[in-house]
Amino acid sequence: MRKTTAAILAVSAIGALTLAAAPARADSAGAAVAAGIGGFALGAIAGGALAQPAPPPPVYYAPPPPPPPRCWVERRPVFDEYGVEIGSRPRRICE
């Protein structure tokens, strides 16, 4: 609504300026230049009022962290130098 109102006010202001201008000489190019500038300004204002807002940029997320390793404690046998089991001790096992 705000842009539409601004466009209407700009068009009416440009129209009032062109109607209030004093008559120019026949060999003067000032009116043609003024009409070109006014047309460009009017097109810029109307184009800005009708333009759609830009969509928001895409949001990129970091990949999730890898899951922590799965660990547990098992009792493992302990062998002597002859290969005979002499007991066991707890060992942490991770995958």
UniProtKB/TrEMBL annotation:
<keyword id="KW-0732">Signal</keyword>
<keyword id="KW-0812">Transmembrane</keyword>
<keyword id="KW-0472">Membrane</keyword>
<protein>
    <recommendedName>
        <fullName>Lectin-like protein BA14k</fullName>
    </recommendedName>
</protein>
<feature type="transmembrane region" description="Helical">
    <location>
        <begin position="30"/>
        <end position="51"/>
    </location>
</feature>
<feature type="signal peptide">
    <location>
        <begin position="1"/>
        <end position="26"/>
    </location>
</feature>
<keyword id="KW-1133">Transmembrane helix</keyword>
